[in-house]
Amino acid sequence: MATAQFKPPQQWEDWCSWGLGIWLLISPWALRFDLDSGATRVAVITGILIILTEMLTLSFFQSWEEWVNVVLGLWLLVASWVVGIATSAAVRNFVIVGLLVLILAAYEIWQGRSGAESQT
């Protein structure tokens, strides 16, 4: 029976994604929009999902994990309008973090494809 081996993320992009997920978890209290329950829910749940996705990269890397981050980044970009969040700090936070998650995931996808093409 094969067991998953724990190893810390090797790429700087993975560390950045971890940081963004952790930031999302604490941002409602750091930016003081914790009284907006919708914004707090979006921040905490999306932060947890980003962290869980990055945890999968500890044992094995699959390109679909980065596609999950693409979806989560896109979600953060539109969440304020879908959920109806009016707190400007939350809206700015979600747009900035969403763009960063999206850019990091796209870069890792591109980097993975470039590495695969150079090996063939």
Net shape = elongated
Q: Tell me roughly what share of residues is in helical segments.
A: over 70%
Topology as a string of helices (H) and strands (E): HHHH
Note poorly predicted spans. none
Gyration radius, in Å: 15 Å
Q: Helices and strands: which structural class?
A: mainly alpha
Strand content: under 5%
Number of strands: 0
Summarize the topology.
Blueprint: H1 12-30, H2 37-59, H3 63-83, H4 88-119
Helix pairs in contact: 1-2, 1-4, 2-3, 3-4
Plain-language structure description:
With 120 residues, the chain is mostly helical. It has one domain. The chain is 79% helix and 0% strand. Helix 1 (12-30) packs antiparallel against helix 2 and helix 2 runs antiparallel to helix 3. It is elongated, with a radius of gyration of 15 Å. The chain starts with 11 loop residues before the first helix and ends with a helix.
